[in-house]
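As a warm-up, study this chain.
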Amino acid sequence: SRFLATASHDLRQPVHALGMMAEMLDADAPREDIVSRFGAIRSCISTLTDMLNELLDLSSFDMGIHRVAPTTVSMAWLLREASDMFFADASAKGLQLLTDDAGLFVHSDKHLLRRILFNLVSNAVKYTPRGTVSITCRRDAHQVAVTVRDTGIGIAPERLNFIFEDNIRLKPTQKLNEGLGIGLTVVRLAVDLLGHNIQVNSEPGLGTSFVLTLPVSEPDDIALAGEVNPPAASAGAATQPCIVLVEDDSYALKSMAELLTSWGYRVVPCQSPADAVAIVRSGGQVPDLVVSDMHLNEQMDGLAVIAELRACLPRRALPAILLTGDLSTQVSDEAVRADVRIIFKPIRPSALRDLVASELA
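Now compare it with the structure written out below.
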């Protein structure tokens, strides 16, 4: 289709740039050149991750994968998540990122609501050359209005009625870091699925505001617990949380193990399900968390190895994260039934770090 053809073209841009910059890395180059090129590589990886996530989000809605699980959501938690995610990007552009949660709670699906807010804030930061991006919450009777406002370039009046449509950019002047332009389409699909309401107001040259209206809720124990930042991993080896990591790709296994270790966790890397089961069954390691890829080998997939590891520790509640690029409803449904947190690749390291800390809290 025209949609996929355009998306494929845009995805090739950061991949091509990555190849060029990697080729220019030279151990004998001046340090400032190496630092600059690593920074550019990170930027390209971030752009590519955003593009793939946009496509995966759109595909998952199209396939009906998302299952709505309404709960009480702390706006303090949600705005802190958004601030943590976008503070560095905003600061790099000289923007102020302001938040005011007003101590409110709403009734929504926690993960879909976060995706909506992240997409809105991402757009605001991307298209605001100077000034401020703010996220505010205000209660009106039985509803909470969450407003994402920026002082950016604004949207022309004739485009306001079409901004939530599938509008992958076809401009020859598109910049590398602009993404695919379907973030607002994902917002609309998620808002419709949740039964919420969203409105947009904009003045060209002055800025744009998106107002998301949500049903108010009263705090419960789970939501109140979310107000507290998850504890960081302890530096002491004896108290370091142990993570069993199962991944059949050697490069992915090595990089993921190094990343988790750098965050202060004790990691047991396993390249096969059999290795993971043997280590835990022998009593050599008692994991606090399992992180596994889905498609491992013909004998055992990620969900099967998680079930086997839990069976080895019947008296212990063992949380698990399934990392996969498989968007099929079958995998998602099986993960939900197995009480396994499923996350679709690619995932930003910062988001993975928060997720791991949350599962271990």
